[in-house]
Design goal:
Layout (H helix, E strand, L loop, with lengths): L1 H13 L17 E7 L8 E2 L8 E2 L3 H11 L1 E5 L5 H9 L5 E5 L10 E16 L18 E4 L6 H8 L3 E4 L2 H9 L5 E5 H11 L6 E2 L5 E9 L6 H12 L2 H21 L12
Parallel strand pairs: 1-4, 1-5, 7-8, 7-9
Antiparallel strand pairs: 2-3, 5-11, 6-9, 6-10, 6-11
Helix pairs in contact: 2-7, 6-8
């Protein structure tokens, strides 16, 4: 009888379905530090709100990370004081354990352990002057038009390839981007839906443009773990369990909505710039 109990214990311990064991704080009595990063200039998916303060970083995955670290006896330290490409390289090299917000099948994130499922989509939408938005019925209509996109967007390789096949100019800043639209130097803007809401609110022009009702492309955003992290297996298994819970997706979407709403309220009185050349 004792032999069978030992065998059952070993099988239960080895079974992948028991990934919840990563949350057993009795097995992880020592609190350990892990480093986390994400987008640093791409609201609402990641933004250093005030560079003068170390704790001013926001991304919508923070509550998920906080919940996981609480159960797994980790302390999360956010690393944000580098350029984004360097931060990604630091994750790949094991200097950072987790990165919040990556795309699958994208060269920049090659070599990272992506945790499924994605908790949110980053849709790419079409922005046009209101009297022209009905000209575009499908992506094929864009081939005959001239478009533009902000250099500040973060795209998956698939979407980047699709956009490269169109007549799309890359513009360094949002003011110049929208000035070209209002001056009819371009016909349309391609932009991620949530980032665009933030930019429109800050410039006070949300009511002066029209946005496509359906996205042209969807880009699922994932969490990813460094393959060089000393806690790789523990973090990956633990986050896999947590991300499968329905409340995880709800938490991320709520954080995004709250951030966008906050920005819209803060900028409610902003006077729209006069883009039109005189």
């Amino acid at each position: 009888m004792k032999i069978w109990l030992v065998i059952l214990f070993i099988i239960g311990w080895a079974c992948p379905a028991n990934a919840q064991v990563e949350f057993d704080t009795t097995r992880n009595r020592d609190v350990k530090q892990i480093k986390v990063t994400g987008f640093i200039d791409y609201p609402p998916f990641g933004i250093v709100q005030d560079p003068a303060f170390n704790n001013s970083y926001f991304n919508p995955f923070q509550k998920i990370i906080a919940k996981y670290t609480k159960f797994a006896n980790f302390i999360a330290d956010y690393t944000t004081h580098y350029q984004y490409p360097q931060l990604v390289r630091m994750v790949r090299g094991g200097k950072i354990d987790i990165i919040c917000g990556v795309y699958h099948d994208t060269e920049m994130y090659k070599g990272l352990d992506i945790v499924y499922p994605a908790l949110v989509n980053n849709p790419i939408v079409l922005v046009m002057l209101p009297n022209r938005i009905n000209e575009v019925k499908s992506k094929d209509n864009l081939k005959a038009l001239k478009g533009a996109i902000s250099a500040n967007e973060h795209l998956s390789d698939f979407v980047q390839k699709e956009i490269d096949a169109l007549n799309v100019e890359v513009i360094d800043d949002e003011y110049t981007l929208y000035k070209k639209l209002f001056n009819k130097e371009i016909d349309y803007i391609l932009t991620s839906e949530y980032y665009n809401k933030v930019m429109l609110a800050k410039m006070g022009i949300a009511k002066q443009v029209a946005i496509s009702k359906e996205p042209l492309w969807n880009m699922p955003l994932f969490l990813a773990v460094s393959k060089m992290s000393p806690y790789r297996k523990q973090i990956f298994n633990g986050l896999s369990v947590m991300l499968a819970q329905p409340e995880a997706r709800e938490s991320v979407n709520k954080a995004i909505a709250e951030y966008v709403n906050k920005i819209e309220i803060q900028n409610a009185g902003v006077v729209a710039p006069d883009f039109i050349n005189k």
